[in-house]
Sequence to fold (152 residues):
Amino acid sequence: MSFDRQALPEPNSYFENAGLILQGRGKWRTTTCHFHGGRTTLRINLESGAWVCMSCGQKGGDVLAYEMQSTGADFVTAARSLGAWMDDDRTSAPATHKPFSTREALSVLAVEANLAAIAASNLAYGNRLTSDDLARLQTAAQRINLIRETYP
Ligand SMILES: [Zn+2]
Fold:
C-alpha cells in the first residue's frame, strides 16, 4: 500500500469540484475561505496546489492537505478519497496466501502419519528399512515441518 502523488487530481479541477469559485488569472487564484467563515481571502497556487488564507492563516502545500484539513480525514483516508492511495491486493488478503489449503495440509499429515506407522510396524516385525524408505521418512518429516511453519 502506498501513496501515489502523481495520482492526485489537478489543483484547478480539485478546488472547483470542492465547490470553490476561483477568481483571477495566472498562477495564483483567489477564492472563499471556509476555514474562518466565508471571506474571499484564500489564495490558491494552481501549479502546486498550495493554498493559504491571507486572513486566518490556514494553509497547506497541496490538494491533499486541503482535503485533510477541510474534511478532518487522516492522510490515508484523504489520499484514498482523491484516488491517490494504491491498495495492494496481495497484502489485503493474507489468508489466501498459503501455498496449500488447511484441508490439503491435513490430508498430507494423514498420509505421512500412515507412512511413519507402516515403517514403524516393519521395524517392529524385524524388517530393516531400505535407504529409500529412510529417505521417504525424512521427506515426510520435512513436509510435516513445512505445514507447521505455514500454520504457526
Ligand atoms: Zn481563512
